[in-house]
Amino acid sequence: MTTNFTTSSPVSQLDLNSLRQFLLDLLVRLAYSEGDFLLSSGQKSSYYINGKKVTLTAEGGLAVGRLLLSMLPEDTQGVAGLTLGADPIVSAVSVVSAYQNRPIPAFIIRKEAKGHGTKAYIEGPDLPPNSKIVVLEDVVTTGKSAMQAVERLRDAGYQVEEILAVVDRQQGGAEFYQSVGLKFQALFSIADIQARYQLLNNN
Prior knowledge:
Blueprint: H1 16-31, E1 32-38, E2 44-49, H2 52-55, H3 58-71, E3 78-82, H4 87-99, E4 106-109, E5 122-123, E6 132-140, H5 144-155, E7 159-168, H6 173-179, E8 183-189, H7 190-201
Parallel strand pairs: 3-4, 3-6, 6-7, 7-8
Antiparallel strand pairs: 1-2, 4-5
Helix pairs in contact: 1-3, 1-7, 3-4
């Protein structure tokens, strides 16, 4: 399936509202499927969202990068996420930030410490202690995956107060983040995805 959906302008030139609609359609067409699935959280689900089907395309990566960058607090000094789902997202946001003359470095958080060299959990440039990092995620279910990244970053001496996601499955993640004092925003809820899916498949 091609990702070259028709738009009135190049993805790099779309306004944020048009870009959001473009990304929603990409997610519905490429990342969303219905059936019987077992999630990484251990829960069973009647649908699945494979965000990497979108975030690893040129257009999807650019759209995600532009939209999430627009949501970052002005004082953000870095973006980070737990490997593997967040890898293309943090990279996209960082690259787009350089084009917008607001360079923000990216960090990838390992699930297990590297077995050689520095044996580090965090890959990326060095920032001063207490630098403000925002954690990014592709799809949030319970919220526990991104929380691993938060804990690793805090252990390394960084400030983490907010998590941004592409999709919130609305299965407890937002409530979990609130309970531990973290701000949380998502570009789309699962309700947004499913409503668009029904519309596109009924036409």
